Protein backbone atom coordinates (compact mmCIF):
# COMPACT_ATOMS: atom_id res chain seq x y z
CA UNK A 1 0.00 0.00 0.00
CA UNK A 2 2.98 2.29 0.38
CA UNK A 3 4.02 2.22 -3.26
CA UNK A 4 2.45 3.27 -6.51
CA UNK A 5 3.94 1.26 -9.33
CA UNK A 6 4.49 3.37 -12.45
CA UNK A 7 4.20 6.53 -10.34
CA UNK A 8 7.06 8.24 -12.15
CA UNK A 9 5.30 7.77 -15.48
CA UNK A 10 2.00 9.00 -14.06
CA UNK A 11 3.58 12.31 -13.03
CA UNK A 12 4.18 13.07 -16.72
CA UNK A 13 0.53 12.65 -17.77
CA UNK A 14 -1.87 15.50 -18.56
CA UNK A 15 -4.86 13.64 -17.11
CA UNK A 16 -5.03 10.89 -14.49
CA UNK A 17 -8.25 9.00 -13.78
CA UNK A 18 -8.28 6.70 -10.78
CA UNK A 19 -10.87 4.28 -9.46
CA UNK A 20 -10.68 1.60 -6.84
CA UNK A 21 -13.68 0.19 -5.03
CA UNK A 22 -14.68 -2.58 -7.47
CA UNK A 23 -11.58 -4.63 -6.64
CA UNK A 24 -12.05 -4.39 -2.88
CA UNK A 25 -15.24 -6.46 -2.98
CA UNK A 26 -13.52 -9.46 -4.59
CA UNK A 27 -12.75 -12.49 -2.42
CA UNK A 28 -11.29 -15.92 -3.01
CA UNK A 29 -9.95 -16.68 -6.50
CA UNK A 30 -11.35 -13.39 -7.88
CA UNK A 31 -9.32 -11.38 -5.38
CA UNK A 32 -6.47 -9.73 -7.32
CA UNK A 33 -3.95 -9.91 -4.44
CA UNK A 34 -2.56 -12.49 -2.03
CA UNK A 35 -1.59 -10.20 0.85
CA UNK A 36 -2.14 -6.65 2.06
CA UNK A 37 0.73 -4.58 3.40
CA UNK A 38 -0.44 -2.06 5.96
CA UNK A 39 1.13 1.38 6.19
CA UNK A 40 3.14 0.29 9.23
CA UNK A 41 4.70 -2.51 7.14
CA UNK A 42 2.70 -5.37 8.67
CA UNK A 43 1.66 -7.91 6.03
CA UNK A 44 -1.73 -9.58 6.48
CA UNK A 45 -3.68 -12.14 4.46
CA UNK A 46 -6.86 -10.09 4.68
CA UNK A 47 -8.48 -7.31 6.66
CA UNK A 48 -11.73 -5.37 6.87
CA UNK A 49 -12.24 -4.11 3.32
CA UNK A 50 -13.62 -0.72 4.36
CA UNK A 51 -10.59 -0.13 6.60
CA UNK A 52 -8.23 -1.30 3.85
CA UNK A 53 -9.95 0.95 1.30
CA UNK A 54 -9.65 3.99 3.58
CA UNK A 55 -5.99 3.23 4.26
CA UNK A 56 -5.21 2.93 0.56
CA UNK A 57 -7.17 6.08 -0.28
CA UNK A 58 -5.23 8.05 2.33
CA UNK A 59 -1.94 6.73 0.96
CA UNK A 60 -3.04 7.60 -2.59
CA UNK A 61 -4.12 11.11 -1.49
CA UNK A 62 -0.74 11.72 0.13
CA UNK A 63 0.97 10.67 -3.11
CA UNK A 64 -1.20 12.99 -5.21
CA UNK A 65 -0.64 15.91 -2.82
CA UNK A 66 3.13 15.35 -2.81
CA UNK A 67 3.83 14.34 -6.41
CA UNK A 68 1.27 15.86 -8.78
CA UNK A 69 1.69 19.32 -10.32
CA UNK A 70 -1.87 20.66 -10.78
CA UNK A 71 -0.61 23.12 -13.42
CA UNK A 72 0.29 20.15 -15.61
CA UNK A 73 -2.00 17.31 -14.57
CA UNK A 74 -5.73 17.13 -13.90
CA UNK A 75 -6.64 14.34 -11.50
CA UNK A 76 -10.03 12.62 -11.49
CA UNK A 77 -11.38 9.97 -9.18
CA UNK A 78 -14.26 7.67 -10.08
CA UNK A 79 -15.08 5.65 -7.02
CA UNK A 80 -17.34 2.71 -6.33
CA UNK A 81 -20.15 4.73 -7.86
CA UNK A 82 -19.47 3.03 -11.18
CA UNK A 83 -21.08 -0.21 -10.06
CA UNK A 84 -24.22 0.38 -8.03
CA UNK A 85 -25.92 -2.55 -6.43
CA UNK A 86 -28.39 -3.86 -9.01
CA UNK A 87 -28.43 -7.46 -7.78
CA UNK A 88 -31.62 -7.05 -5.72
CA UNK A 89 -34.80 -5.50 -7.07
CA UNK A 90 -35.98 -4.26 -3.69
CA UNK A 91 -33.59 -1.31 -4.22
CA UNK A 92 -35.93 -0.05 -6.95
CA UNK A 93 -39.32 -1.25 -5.75
CA UNK A 94 -39.41 -4.81 -7.06
CA UNK A 95 -39.02 -8.12 -5.26
CA UNK A 96 -35.61 -8.88 -3.76
CA UNK A 97 -35.12 -11.87 -6.10
CA UNK A 98 -35.33 -9.60 -9.18
CA UNK A 99 -32.08 -8.30 -10.62
CA UNK A 100 -30.88 -6.12 -13.48
CA UNK A 101 -30.77 -9.01 -15.99
CA UNK A 102 -34.47 -8.65 -16.72
CA UNK A 103 -34.47 -4.84 -16.85
CA UNK A 104 -34.43 -3.14 -20.24
CA UNK A 105 -35.51 0.43 -19.49
CA UNK A 106 -34.09 2.98 -17.04
CA UNK A 107 -35.86 3.49 -13.76
CA UNK A 108 -38.47 6.21 -13.88
CA UNK A 109 -38.72 6.65 -10.15
CA UNK A 110 -38.58 9.82 -8.13
CA UNK A 111 -37.06 7.98 -5.19
CA UNK A 112 -34.64 5.11 -5.14
CA UNK A 113 -32.10 4.10 -2.55
CA UNK A 114 -29.67 7.01 -2.97
CA UNK A 115 -27.86 7.23 0.34
CA UNK A 116 -24.15 7.42 -0.50
CA UNK A 117 -22.24 4.27 0.30
CA UNK A 118 -19.71 4.16 3.11
CA UNK A 119 -16.91 4.12 0.56
CA UNK A 120 -18.30 7.16 -1.24
CA UNK A 121 -18.40 9.01 2.07
CA UNK A 122 -14.79 7.98 2.79
CA UNK A 123 -13.74 9.12 -0.67
CA UNK A 124 -15.47 12.51 -0.35
CA UNK A 125 -13.97 13.05 3.10
CA UNK A 126 -10.44 12.25 1.93
CA UNK A 127 -10.76 14.40 -1.20
CA UNK A 128 -11.96 17.33 0.92
CA UNK A 129 -8.79 17.11 3.04
CA UNK A 130 -6.37 17.13 0.10
CA UNK A 131 -4.27 20.17 -0.76
CA UNK A 132 -4.43 19.41 -4.50
CA UNK A 133 -7.73 19.48 -6.36
CA UNK A 134 -9.09 16.10 -7.43
CA UNK A 135 -12.29 16.14 -9.45
CA UNK A 136 -14.73 13.52 -8.19
CA UNK A 137 -16.71 11.93 -10.99
CA UNK A 138 -19.73 11.50 -8.73
CA UNK A 139 -22.01 9.33 -10.84
CA UNK A 140 -23.37 7.10 -8.10
CA UNK A 141 -27.00 8.28 -8.10
CA UNK A 142 -27.10 8.63 -11.88
CA UNK A 143 -25.87 5.06 -12.32
CA UNK A 144 -28.37 3.64 -9.84
CA UNK A 145 -31.23 4.67 -12.14
CA UNK A 146 -29.76 2.70 -15.06
CA UNK A 147 -30.64 -0.88 -14.14
CA UNK A 148 -31.04 -1.46 -17.88
CA UNK A 149 -27.44 -0.57 -18.69
CA UNK A 150 -25.61 -3.79 -17.80
CA UNK A 151 -24.34 -6.23 -20.39
CA UNK A 152 -25.86 -9.35 -18.83
CA UNK A 153 -29.32 -8.51 -20.12
CA UNK A 154 -28.14 -8.38 -23.71
CA UNK A 155 -25.26 -10.81 -24.17
CA UNK A 156 -26.80 -14.16 -23.23
CA UNK A 157 -24.76 -14.42 -20.04
CA UNK A 158 -26.67 -16.53 -17.49
CA UNK A 159 -25.51 -14.61 -14.43
CA UNK A 160 -25.95 -11.05 -13.32
CA UNK A 161 -23.09 -8.71 -14.13
CA UNK A 162 -23.49 -5.34 -12.44
CA UNK A 163 -19.83 -4.43 -12.85
CA UNK A 164 -19.87 -3.94 -16.62
CA UNK A 165 -21.96 -1.57 -18.70
CA UNK A 166 -23.32 -1.58 -22.25
CA UNK A 167 -22.27 0.93 -24.84
CA UNK A 168 -24.05 3.14 -25.81
CA UNK A 169 -25.73 4.46 -22.72
CA UNK A 170 -24.36 4.80 -19.23
CA UNK A 171 -20.64 5.01 -20.16
CA UNK A 172 -21.51 7.65 -22.78
CA UNK A 173 -23.08 9.76 -20.05
CA UNK A 174 -20.02 9.28 -17.84
CA UNK A 175 -17.81 10.31 -20.77
CA UNK A 176 -19.92 13.45 -21.33
CA UNK A 177 -19.48 14.39 -17.67
CA UNK A 178 -15.74 13.72 -17.89
CA UNK A 179 -15.47 15.76 -21.09
CA UNK A 180 -17.28 18.71 -19.48
CA UNK A 181 -14.98 18.47 -16.47
CA UNK A 182 -11.90 18.41 -18.71
CA UNK A 183 -13.07 21.64 -20.30
CA UNK A 184 -13.40 23.34 -16.92
CA UNK A 185 -10.53 25.03 -15.17
CA UNK A 186 -10.19 22.62 -12.23
CA UNK A 187 -7.13 24.37 -10.84
CA UNK A 188 -9.07 27.01 -8.90
TrEMBL record:
InterPro entries reported in the protein's UniProt record: TBL, TBL_C
GO terms for MF: O-acetyltransferase activity
Pfam family, one: PC-Esterase
A single Gene Ontology CC term: Golgi apparatus
Domain Trichome birefringence-like C-terminal stretches: 7-180
Family to which this protein belongs: Belongs to the PC-esterase family. TBL subfamily.
Annotated protein name in UniProt: Trichome birefringence-like C-terminal domain-containing protein
Lineage per the UniProt record: Eukaryota, Viridiplantae, Streptophyta, Embryophyta, Tracheophyta
Amino acid sequence: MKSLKSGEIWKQMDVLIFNSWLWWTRTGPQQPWDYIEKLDGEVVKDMNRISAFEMVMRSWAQWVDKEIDPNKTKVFYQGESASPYHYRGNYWGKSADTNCKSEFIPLNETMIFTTPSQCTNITKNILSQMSKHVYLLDIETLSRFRVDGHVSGYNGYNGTDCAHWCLAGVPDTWNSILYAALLQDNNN
